[in-house]
Design brief:
460 residues; alpha/beta; five-stranded mixed β-sheet; two-stranded antiparallel sheet; globular; metal ion binding; nucleus; nuclease activity; hydrolase
Amino acid sequence: MDETFLLMLSNLLHLHNSLDPTTSLLSPASSSPPPTSSPSPSSPSSLLSSSSPAPLLFFTLASLLSFLATSSSKKGSKNSSPSSENREPNSSPSPSPSPSSSSYFSISAFRALSTDHIWTMDAQFRDALWRSLYGLSYPVFTTVVEKLKPFITASNLSLPSDYAVAMVLSRLSHGYSAKTIASRSSLDPYLVSKITNMVTRLLATKLYPEFIKIPVSRRRLIETTQGFEELTSLPNICGAIDGSPMKVRGLKLDRNLMNCYKSKYGYDSVLLQVVADHRKIFWDVCVKAPGGADDATHFRDSLLYNRLTSGDIVWDKMINVRGHHVRPYIVGDWCYPLLSFLMTPFSPDGAGTPAQNLFDGMLMKGRSVVVDAIGLLKTRWRILQDLNVGLNHAPQTIVACCVLHNLCQIAREPEPEIRKDPDENGALARVLESEKQFYYFGESLRQALADDLHQRLSSR
């Protein structure tokens, strides 16, 4: 309550006592007990029916001051709402219901919201509020907290685990800087950065094996290949691969390294490579190359490439297409090399035969799944549109957002409007000498798939 109002209230009490010292306006405990046979003089009815004008005068003035104080409080709260000039560069107005810039950031406010009020809220309203604050619904939020809590507790962090996770998710989903989060939470920016690094590292290491998995089990393979076949009419596709540069803000690099991190779109970045299934769930993530690297080079440096070429990954599903044994394969654009386990288009400009052009169209339709998945990733976790973390922490931040993306997709969270990168215009990938055997088999396999597809669709 405002100090000025309290002072005025105190003055009114003194005024009342001087006008009518026989009537107490304090609680009954502070006055002598009245006779049981008559109403208490301090009861509302007796005060208003009293012959003295003091009680009525007091209540009239007190009511007026209470009204003025309430109106002033409401006006102040409106004036304290953040203006568009003070918003983060990456942030946009949050959907309704949207909190004020600071009302949900303190520990006490978060604790009151997450414990006292959460179960009285309508579930739909509650999840909409949580998405506007932390990028995901309340049930998914609690899942993340429960899985990370043992590790956060073991680190002896001075903040509650759920509050630490909420603070980091708010930063990832809105793109806030550590300085902004610190000012709203009354914490030191260094502590915010430290907590961000800890939580993203836990997401990228402890939760990665559970939520980002190569589909090697027969059940999941059948589900994935059937999903892609419904979309493309091509059999045994188990994933779509693509790369995307992730902009990193304020890189201070040696002159020899500047071009390495400069993406084809002109900004400093690191390169993300993902493989997604038909539900836009990532089953492989790699962030090992600077933004100036090409997709084929990044792919060859990845653990996935080494596992595929060495035969370490065993696909427990094989079909026969025109005499060719076809194991599950992934699809990509012409920036990737054609290999037995990676199908790419015949031509980027539609210069092939009718069967080849039909195959290319269907393959690119399957590839669109991973393009949409990357768009969803960047839309949900806006920090990826302009990373405001150090270069050493950029890869783990990106991987952490990929883990959170999968959690959202598995929980069937609503998909926001997708933010897509410009269309690819890279050069055709060349084939290395060590890849020749995979290339020749992939070439004959691709042609068999194209001829089979053309025959099946033409006979309908």
